Structures are given as structure tokens and as C-alpha cells.
Amino acid sequence: MRSRLTISNTTIIKRSTGVVENHHSFPFSVTKCGAEMNDRRHFKRSLGMVLLMSTVAMTSGFKIVSSEELAKIRNEGSSPEVDTSSLFHDDITPWANSSSREADEVLSAIDDQSFSEACQEYGVQKSQAFPCTFWVQVAGTVDSVDTSSRVGKIILSSGDKDVEILIGPVIPNTTLRDGYPEVDYSDFGNQDAFATLSEGLNSEVLSLVDEVGEITPGDRVSVVGAFSTWDGQEDAVQIVPVALNRVNAE
Amino acid sequence: MKMTSLQLLNRFASTATLSAMVAVTGVSSAQAQDDAELSDGGEKGNIAILVNSLDNPYYSAEANAAAQRAEELGYAASTFSHNEDLNRQRELISSVVGQGVDGIILDNADSSASVAAVRYATERDVPVVLINREIPEDGIAIAQLTHNNNQAASQVAQAFIEKVGESGQYVELTCNLADNNCVARSNAYHRILDQYPDLEMVARQDAGGDLVEAQQSMESILQSHPDIVGVVAGNGPVALGAIAALESAGVADQVTVVGIDGSNDERDAVLDGKLYATAMLQAQELARQGVNQLHQYLETGETGESERQLFRGILITEDNAESVNDFQYNDN
């Protein structure tokens, strides 16, 4: 970590050591000196003080940086600022569209192969700390819409397993975050920031569902999304959508 | 395996008293090595394992697992307890580094304040692997392995809602808000529970992670809020303390209690129907992996893994509680 001195909106970074030192603010900036100080003696004294400090700074391994650079330095090692809307629309959704497989194919693989083999072939599992996430696409007729719980679901008519599409307002899992390979916990540094990212992505899902409008039994819908599971033993798969369309909407 | 809440309380009260004595005197059973003398005889060298109180079943399980794995790999393992005392931790690290330890496995005394202690060792070319608690800086420890508290608490919160429904009054007893892991759990609970507007938290108290304190807090809260439907607890002892208070008040069967940790006592409480759900933290597996990565680093100069790594908490209910033993999950 580098230490720094601040002169108004400029900052001096000490490059030589890893020791954190005091952060000093001076009462005026270099640019203010000439414009605002009428007292010539005061100006000379102030200018002399700035020159002295600058000289000290230059000869002791310090460097002047801008406020923008300071902000960047201050953020080093902390959690990254993530635009979740951009991540959702520009990264995750296109990736899901190109990577997802037919739900039937994936569900058959989970049933027919060992779970770990199915996960390896069809899923994403960043480490043992996270469930395996499968990206799937499915189209079908809406059998029912369950809003008796705040974890609202669209239930599709299907084969052996119930296929449910989560529509909120509560999306209780972190499927999108955990299933997108480019997002890694190591980039965040604390669990709260990592959880906040997931909340942001789930909010995008709710916006997506709102845009589609009310869906009722008998509608045909197509979905691209992800479900996560530790062992594939659940009776129903719950898909978090990144694309949801009413097929008979036209 | 079954026991009454009074037996549970007595058992934990004894542990709590012993822990308190340890904290005061700075001496524990595992601190026979009070002068921090390293063991001899490791074919590959020495590893020091520093954890909190070894009288606590969690820390005991992780320390034992780490020591066993280190010995399997050919190291002499020395285990020390800092009792969450930063000065003691600093002294221990300084001592083992001075004796030429090859590497340190550390469950640190305080996430932020331990940065300097870790740096002290690494600046002297002694690699440190952190287990359980992370520090807020990267690039000092060679690895930071911790439990996925968010995932664990989220699953417990969802199980809680499935049981109590989406409305009613509940209480939160946190474990120790000076501990980042406890803060992460509490935040994760609320990320789920706060999405249910009819589920109202009527009281929240920091029970310090302690069973007796939790029981006293719960007794007090019950006076003002006799109609609660549930208690979410930040760790196992706090959950068990809440259960003891609810049983004393005769309302245990009306209140759903959940926690996080997954000790054998919680397992028994789950099997007895007193604790609805908990998340078992994989203390042994986490510790073993920490030693594996330290070994890898000592052999090759790198761990081969990301610095920060999470370990899953396993949701425990009556369906799988039998698989829990000393923070190890055996599902065979």
C-alpha cells in the first residue's frame, strides 16, 4: 500500500515504502493562491510553503497524482463497482443465449449420468462452495401461475420433473451470479459485496418479468435461464430467467 | 443421543465457564505448549496451527483436522490457542517464527486487527494460510479459506420461512457482531427475511455467540414478545440458548428456532425436534484444505488456487442430521 499526501484536489503518493503515513490537507490549493489572495506577503509566504512542501515531496520519493488517480488507488483491493444492469444485459444474457441447452436434454443427463458427470458436461460449478448451475432453454404451455408465496412461479406442463420459472417478487437464490463463469468471489474480497451483486442481478430479473406482463395458464412461453442444484434430487427445477417471452403474444 | 434442554444447558454452561476461565487465565488444555514451543520430528518441517479456544468444539475440530493432515503430509504439527486475544496471537506468531516454523495455519483473533500479525510472518518468509476468518487485505496470506456464510444463512432463512410461513413476528439473536462472519450471516438472513413485509422482526440482540447470554436475552425478549413464531440465531450456542429459554417458558413447541454452525449438540437438538434447521460449517474439510495448500506452497512456491476460497455450509434438518459428526458431513 502506498501512502499519500493531499494538496486540495491533488495528491502525493509515496512510492518508496509500503508504510501508511498521515494524510495531510493544506488550507489552500496552488491554483487558488494567485487568484484569491490580495495580501502579497501572505501570498509569498503561502507560495513559499507550497514550494517547500513540493520540494520536500519531490526529493523524498513522492509523486503528485490527480483526484481520479487517487480514487483509483483508494479502490485498489476493495470490491469492484459492478454495473449489474450492464452485466445482466450485455454479458450474462448473450452468454446464456449461446450456452444454454434444451432443458429436456440437461434433465435427462442428470437422471442418466452421475450428477458430477452431468455437472461437468452441462453445468457450471466454480467450486464446492457453490451448487452446480445449468443454463437451459425451454418452451411450453403455462400450466399454472403460483403467487401464493412471494417466491412466485410459473409452472410449465412438462414430463417427469416440474419446470418452474421464478417470477418473484422474491428470488431467493444466487443462481445467475454463481452460474456466470466470469464472476469470481476472489474479485470481491468480502461476502457482503458478493451478495449485493447477486441482489442486483435478481432485480434485473424482476424488471424483465415486469416487462413481459401478466402471464396466465394456457399461455405459451419460451425461457432462457439457469437453475442450480447440489445433487439434482429435487422434484422440480426452478429456473431463474434471463429471457422470458410470450410465444403467442403477436 | 437425546437430552433435555436442561442437560444441554448444563453441558454448555460448563463449557462456557471453562472457556471463561481459559480467557481469564490464558491457559487451556491445549496450551500445554504455553511457551509456544514447536514440536520436533517433522520429516518435512514444522507447521504451527493457531486457533481460538480449543475448548470450543468448532475450533477443536478444525485444529485437530489440520494437525492430522499436517502429520499425514510429513510435518510436525504444533497447535496453539490465542483465545481471541490479539496480543497472545502476536506473541505466538512471533515465537513460532523465531523458532523457524515453516508455515502457519491461522484462524485469526480479529479480521482487521490481524493484518499486521499475518504480515509479520510473511515478511519473514513464513507463509500463512488463513482458515475460517478472512482479513480485509489481499496478497499477504497465501490463502484465505472461509465458510460461505451468505449461502449458509440464506438456506437457513429459506428453511425458516418454509416452516413459519411468510408472516409473523420473529427475533434475531446474533452471534457476535464484532466478528465479520457473524455480520455476514446476519446480513444474509436479512437479505431473505426482509423481502417478506409481513414477517416482522420484533427484537434483535447480540448474544455474543454465547449460550448463557442467548438464554438470558431470550428470556427477557419473551417478556415483551410472547407471540413470536421464530428465532433466527447467528450460531449454534445462541440457538441452543434460545431453545433453553423457550423451553423454560413452555413455548418451545410454538416457536421455530434455526441457527448456523452444525455442532454435535445442534445435531442432537435437530434430531430431538428442538432446532428446526442449521447449517453445518465444514470445519474439518476447510482445515485440511488449508494444510494441503500450505504444503503445496512449501513444495512449489504456489498454492495453485485463488487466494480467497469459500466452503459450502450444508443445510441440516431432521432428514440428514445423522450425517453430522464433529463438523464433518458423512453422507454415505
Walk me through the structure:
The complex is a heterodimer of chains A (250) and B (332). With 250 residues, chain A is of the alpha+beta class. Chain A has eight helices and ten strands. Chain A has a five-stranded mixed beta barrel. Chain A has a three-stranded antiparallel β-sheet with strand order 1-2-3. In chain A, strand 1 and strand 2 (10-14) form a beta hairpin. The longest helix of chain A is centred in the C-terminal third of the chain and has 22 residues, at 191-212. With 332 residues, chain B is an alpha/beta fold. In chain B, 42% of the residues lie in helices and 20% in strands. Chain B is built from ten helices and 14 strands. In chain B, strands 2-1-3-4-5-11 form a six-stranded parallel β-sheet, with helices on both faces. In chain B, strands 7-6-8-9 form a four-stranded parallel β-sheet, sandwiched between helices. The two termini of chain B are 20 Å apart. At the A-B interface, helix 8 of A face helix 5, helix 6 and strand 11 of B.
What count of structural domains of chain A?
2
Biggest chain pair interface: A-B, 22 and 29 residues
The rough form of chain A would be described as globular
**Radius of gyration of chain B, taken over Cα atoms and rounded to an integer in Å:** 20 Å
The fold-level CATH name of the largest domain in chain B is Rossmann fold
Which structural class should the secondary elements of chain B be placed in?
A: alpha/beta
- Characterize the largest beta sheet of chain A: strand count, sense, and whether it forms a barrel: 5 strands, mixed, barrel
